[in-house]
Amino acid sequence: MRPFPRIALATTALLLTATLARAAGPVPPGYGIAASETLAGGVEHLTISRTNPAQSVQVARISPGQPVALATVSAHDAVSHSVSQQELPSDMCRRVNCIVGVNADFHDTNTDEPFGGVVSGGRLVRSPSAADQLTVTHNGTLQAGRLDWSGSLTAADGTTTALGGFNVDRTPGAALLYTPAWGAPTPAGASGELILRATGPVGVLEATTPLQIVGFRTAPGPVPANGAVLSADGNQANALAALWVRVQAHTLADTLQLTVHAGAGDVAESIGVRPTLLRDGKRVFPPVNDGLTAFRAPRTLVGWNAAGEIVIVTVDGRQDTGAGMTLADASDLLLALGATDGVNFDGGGGTTFVVDGTVTNLPSDPSNPGPPSMPGGHVVAPGHVERLAPNALVVVSRPVDPPSPTPTTAPPGGGTNPQATGPSTPTTGDTTPFDPVFGTTDGGRNLGQSPAPDPLGIFNVATDGSGGGVLTAVVTPTRGERSHSKGAKLTTATTGFLGGWLDGVVPALPMPGGAAAEGQSALAAGARDDTPRPWPVLPALIALGGVAALGGAFILARERRRSRSRARARELWI
Length: 574
Prior knowledge:
This protein is of the alpha+beta class.
């Protein structure tokens, strides 16, 4: 190869590498981008790797201000109490149509319940313990640390019972509330339980939830699907029994008001972590020499910064392609990816990175860690098996509110413009937008109410209710849609040819009688062009120009005749 092509090729490769690096955001020194893809608007998935030591890292980078959100998902939407009740992260991801997701909280090896609390969709699923939580506010801001919470039930006479836990194991001397999300009968040890009925979700934060007392029992039992159970022992159980006696005697109304608060009152999602790694760019975890902290292992991490950027990361380990990381290494990785704050989730064999329901990393478990009844479909690759988890953290699309349709109003006196192709006012109580071509529509679907079309198939108008209006939108029919009228064909053809030039050049023209265009043209066929265009005045201008030209030619000819007559007269005079 000649020198020049070599230089050109090397330069091209360098520019391509630099472009990929810029597109992907910060890439840690020594790492290369093995793969890059855009998963959704503002969500990018990177696979980065290095050697010495070998590392294979999955990164989901989320840009700020994107129509996506972080969400917590519990295994089978409940608190798990055994390995068999846990769920594969990929199944949790598919179930909620996630863009990307990872396994989340650790689980207690004695109870198989998650260590931390869970808030999902602004509703308390499980009250947090003394451990740290990753918390997401309603505007998408991330926080790490303790999540303080409180809850109480208030009877009709104002008597208040403070809650000592929400879907957690029994605490002696405390009143505990259990909802269907507990996923099991209430724990042993209760001597008094009120059975409650609910008309909606129980545990919504910063709200008052009404509950109805429908029963009482002196031993643990199931949680009703449409309610909750207030469970206690000792003196608390005696107080619940006395409350039930008054309800039975009709000396007290059978209503309770539940209130639950968490954090600073702005919690949308929260899930347990262990531990918090970074805060304001500095390591904050204790420098102990235990296996969790000091050993190289697979890691599941989340990091963010003040600009609103978020990275979700997994690090493979315990295999030739990935050595894994200590918590110090993991913290440095988050810093190199641009994060200033970060947390650690359950790692080891549980580390799982899921894209659109598919596991993209190589979990380190070599065989099925679950019960024998688990199917073999969670084998990611030979020697790499996806492990069950109590919950997951996922990225989902955030619904975008559709724009409100602009209502059409009738002119004063209730009259309608003779050129209007549809009703000028919506039917009372009907908020469905009205399309003048396809009638009442829903998201562009024809619902079969079509008004009479415009005779020429050019435009429709409707009054603006002020006695005056403007025609602001026209639609050009295609060749097969044009009217059979030659005049109409000429007009629509001219409009189609000049419409693009007219856009933004010719202002909307006032129309007599207060008419204003609001919808699309009533076309002769079903297809339509939704591009708004101003009224096609250029054909009229061309016609006026033609008239002016003819008039000018007539005047010029007349002047020439007069000039010749005057010249002949001078000749005769002379």
